[in-house]
Amino acid sequence: MRGNLVVPIYRFGTGSKGAGLFRSIVLVFLTLSFLLTPSTDSRAAGIKVTTTSDLPASATNGGCGLRQAIQAAQTNQSAGGCHPGQGADKVLLSPGNYRLSIPGAGEDNNATGDLDIWSNEGLTVAAGNPRRATTITGNGEDRVLHVLRDARLTLTGLAVTGGRITDRGINQFESGAGIAVEGDQVLVTDQPLPEGSYSHQGQLRIDRVSVFGNTSDFFGGGIFTGGDLTATNSTVAGNHAKAGGGGIAVTAFGNLSGTNLTVSANSSEAGSGGVHVDEYPLRHYMPPAGMAVFTDSILAGNKGVTPDCFALFGFRYPIELNRVLLSSAQDMAKCQATEESSTTRVGWTGLSPLALKSGARVMTPLPGSPAVLKAPSRSCLSTDQLARRRGNRCDLGATRYQGPFPFTTLKLKTTRTANSPGTTTVKAKVTLAGPGRAFNTRICLTAKTIRSFKPAGKRCHNLGTTKPGTPETVTYTLEPRPGSKTARATLKLTATNYRTRTSAVRIR
Ligand SMILES: [Ca+2]
Ligand SMILES: [Ca+2]
Predict the structure, then answer these.
(1) pLDDT tens column, 178-216
(2) What CATH number is given for 410-506 in this structure?
(3) Taking the model in full, what pTM does it have?
(4) Which ligand has the shortest distance to the CA of 102?
(5) What does the alpha-carbon distance between residue 351 and residue 282 come to, in Å, rounded to a whole number?
(6) How far is the CA of 154 from the centre of ligand 1 (A)?
(7) Best CA proximity match to 211, nearest among 244, 162, 250
């Protein structure tokens, strides 16, 4: 790793409840500022992209490409076959793979490499039919989307993949391979801007978006933000960053507010696989800076020097976790989360591998998932990343668990064998059918009409964690009470996260 990558750590006292309150106020302010931003979608003309080809703005044939549509929206002039934009525009994408193919990294005018957003009028890029895959794919030599200072971008119902940030030499290292948002932190030097040039935060909002399979040689495999990022019902998975923040990097003046966000299966060689938060502590004022707040989210199953989170401590704790799954391997001292944080530590994330489902790249909860029902019903977003209603059952992460609940795939099967001296052997076989994991699995025997059982005195057997493909068997030898004509035993199978099963067995 490069020498000038090292960021100094300064400590300015310890965090306090007051700091947590300040953080909460800032979060509310950020959320409100998004909600109060007037929506002009209804009066602005939608710009329909008609081809998946990546056409330069100057091209006159071939229809309306995504790059041209963004250009038309931002310049309010026609570009290629796209109508001119007006005010806050909405660019609509039909299902398909929009692969960026015009070479030229490190360019910020939307002409080559990444798609550059500079307009502060507010641009939305949305999938017209999110139930079918709509993907923007990078060209493998630059990031995919670049939100510059002051710009405002909203993405809905699509996926961002194939971004690549390569090391191009001294002072040319950038961050954010999938999406980068600039603010009062600029990308190229990784330094704050000079005094007096603040409050030009780029703003990105993502809803029902997947950012996957992007790779950065520096920070932020999936997303880098030095501006304001609001993420709901979205998945950041399978991204990689050498320096840190395999999933997401939030640095200096950047803010992340994530609700029902899944950040999993991301990785990093030198830093955090999940999220990296880097306050810039040498400022003598208090901007709402370098902060990540996760609510009802999954930040687990990432790989790195610190698996899920790493933060540099500045004026206050830089990470707040409100009902968040974290890997049990995560060192909480490295995460620097506020005292008010609430987490569930897991060794198993309970998520399926990243897969295309109903048009979206998601990691869906498996039976037994520790994310299920971990949030109070009042905090549910009404639908999930797959646009399914959550109802009053609130799971953590981007997608809700679909299937029977309590989980039903833990099965109990009993077989009996009558033995010659008047005893009966009962075998109880416990199987987990299909994917999932059952915790604290336990078999207990209840029987009033038996005289004795073996192993003696051991009515209950703790089986620990039950996994698919590894059935376990518990054997009891039962002796009926003399004179009892209808001796019966009942076996009860319980697990903390599965439906209880009972099986009655005649033993005479
Ligand atoms: Ca750029
Ligand atoms: Ca570019």
Answers:
(1) 999 988 655 544 555 555 555 688 999 999 999 999 999
(2) 2.60.40.10
(3) 0.84
(4) 2
(5) 40
(6) 17
(7) 162
